[in-house]
Structures are given as structure tokens and as C-alpha cells.
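A.,

Following up on our hallway conversation. C-alpha cells first:
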């Protein structure tokens, strides 16, 4: 073969190799592009479902939080009543023969947290609605921190949730919800009332209760249960929960025998 023929052959082979290399490179690019699109779609779907689950949990947290505030209001701030309580009305004695037994504000928050830790499960319903869509959802125990501040009750919930579908895995842990409530104001008004009553346990200062209610834009009702025992119900019509006035009730036992 002549030198010119050899050169031509090498050129042809070079062109063929270049074409094959280019084709392989293009195929790889296309394959990588498809893989990237699939990965992006998987991430997008994973994010969508995690947002849906987060919204679902926060909605349940709001509903359960409102139920918790209403419940503790009906039971003098308690989810689990103390020993010194009326077993018929299921309310604690805040004043008992001269002793002030008002629940501490920190304990009030703990009682609300206990309610949520035990009751949130019933709203979540084991995430059945998501399992029907093919998701495997595993959850751990609920741990709630409740903070009572002016005009709000804040719930910070630690609830580890693992979402799995195929190769897609997503973990969510922390959830937060705020509910408008004047529980802080009501508590402080009751504390002031009990401090005044504690100084004179043998008499009922109805004017004190009325004054404190008026000063805080509240309403108070007194119900005579039996001799020496009166139920106080503090009513907030300004900030409603579940479209109803919020009520907070407790019982005082007075020592009238020395009168």
C-alpha cells in the first residue's frame, strides 16, 4: 500500500473513532440527563409528600392544642388531677381551708403538654391516609414543650417521623404551632385573686373577683356547691377557641366555722 493510501486509511479510522466517541459521549450525556431528571423528580415528589405530612401533623397539632386548652380550662389547669380535687366536678381545690394550692404556671404548661403527648395520636390516625398512597410512615413518641405567654400558647413538638416510598426516604422531627389564647392573663388574674383570698380565707371577696375580671376584660361566675365550697368560672369572650368563649374553672373551699 502506498504512503498516500496509508494516510487516507488513518484519516478514515480517525474519523470513525471520533464519530464513535462522540456518539458514546452523547449517549452518556442523554443517559445522565435522564437520570438527573429522574432524581430531580424523585426529590420533588419526596419534598411534596414531606410538606403534605408536615401540614397534616401541624393541622392535628392545632386541633389537639385547642382541645388541650379547653380541657385544662374545664379542669382547673389539669390533665391529671391532683389528690386534692373534687371527684364529682373533676376540679382541683385552689384554696382549701386557707391554703393556696394554685397550679404553678410551669406545671400548667406541663399538663397541656401531657394532653398533647397522649391525645395527638388519635388525630394522626397512624397516617392511614398516606399509607393508602403507598408510603410507609414510622413515628416515635411525642414530646411536647408548651409555653404560655401573653395572648398566645406556643407548642413545640418533637415527633420523629420517617417517610419511605421505594428508594425515597425523608425524615421530619420538629413541629411548631401557636394558638391565640388569653390563658396567661386568666392565670395571672386568678393568682391575684387567690393571694387576696389567702389573706382572709374565712370570707369571699366577690368584689375582688369582679374587679379583676373587669380590669382584664373577663367575666367571672360563682356557683355555690355546698357549705364553704364555691366554684369559680372565669370566662373569656374576647379570644374564643373553637368559636366558643373560653372558660377556666376551679373550686375554693372556705373555712367559715370561725365566723
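Then the amino acids I'd put at each of the 259 positions:
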Amino acid at each position: 500500500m502506498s504512503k498516500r493510501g496509508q494516510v487516507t486509511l488513518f484519516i478514515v479510522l480517525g474519523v470513525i473513532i471520533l464519530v464513535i466517541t462522540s456518539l458514546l459521549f452523547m449517549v452518556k450525556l442523554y443517559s445522565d440527563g435522564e437520570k438527573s431528571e429522574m432524581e430531580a423528580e424523585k426529590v420533588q415528589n419526596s419534598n411534596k409528600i414531606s410538606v403534605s405530612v408536615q401540614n397534616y401533623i401541624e393541622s392535628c397539632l392545632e386541633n389537639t392544642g385547642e382541645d388541650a386548652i379547653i380541657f385544662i380550662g374545664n379542669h382547673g389547669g389539669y390533665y391529671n388531677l391532683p389528690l386534692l380535687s373534687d371527684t364529682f366536678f373533676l376540679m382541683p381545690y385552689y384554696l382549701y381551708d386557707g391554703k393556696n394550692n394554685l397550679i404553678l404556671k410551669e406545671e400548667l404548661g406541663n399538663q397541656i403538654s401531657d394532653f398533647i403527648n397522649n391525645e395527638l395520636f388519635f388525630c394522626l390516625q397512624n397516617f392511614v391516609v398516606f399509607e393508602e398512597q403507598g408510603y410507609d410512615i414510622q413515628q416515635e413518641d411525642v414530646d411536647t414543650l408548651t409555653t404560655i405567654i401573653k395572648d398566645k400558647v406556643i407548642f413545640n413538638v418533637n415527633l420523629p417521623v420517617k417517610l419511605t416510598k421505594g428508594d425515597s426516604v425523608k425524615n421530619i422531627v420538629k413541629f411548631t404551632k401557636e394558638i391565640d389564647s388569653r390563658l396567661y392573663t386568666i392565670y395571672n388574674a386568678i393568682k391575684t385573686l387567690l393571694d387576696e383570698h389567702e389573706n382572709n380565707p374565712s370570707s369571699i371577696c366577690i368584689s375582688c373577683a369582679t374587679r379583676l375580671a373587669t380590669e382584664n376584660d373577663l367575666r367571672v361566675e360563682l356557683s355555690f356547691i355546698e357549705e364553704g365550697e364555691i366554684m369559680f368560672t372565669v370566662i373569656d369572650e374576647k379570644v374564643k377557641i373553637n368559636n366558643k368563649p373560653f372558660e377556666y374553672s376551679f373550686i375554693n373551699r372556705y373555712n367559715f366555722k370561725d365566723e
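The mean pLDDT is 85. Curious whether your intuition agrees with the design.

B.
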